[in-house]
Specification:
The chain is of the alpha/beta class. Helix content is about 35%, strand content about 20%.
Length: about 70
């Protein structure tokens, strides 16, 4: 399965852990960022994950953030 990941700085550590776990299970993981815990806004990263799913580049998308509220929209 091709899985797109993305999120903000608050979700960075969890995204990295989930990415490693999914890759270890044999899934193809495409990470759309962010790439650190440096503060950023999440909308661009979440939109990239959504576009990857809509266009068929990914089968599934998962986004990560600190609150879990805004990323789900």
């Amino acid at each position: 399965m091709r899985i797109a990941l993305g999120g903000d700085h608050a979700g960075y550590r969890l995204k990295v852990a989930v990415s490693k776990h999914l890759a270890g299970l044999g899934h193809e993981v495409d990470d759309f960022g962010t790439d650190s815990e440096e503060p950023v806004d999440y909308p661009g990263f979440c939109a990239s994950v959504g576009r990857a799913v809509v266009t068929g580049r990914a089968d599934l998308g998962i986004v990560f953030g600190g609150s879990g509220q805004g990323e789900q929209v």
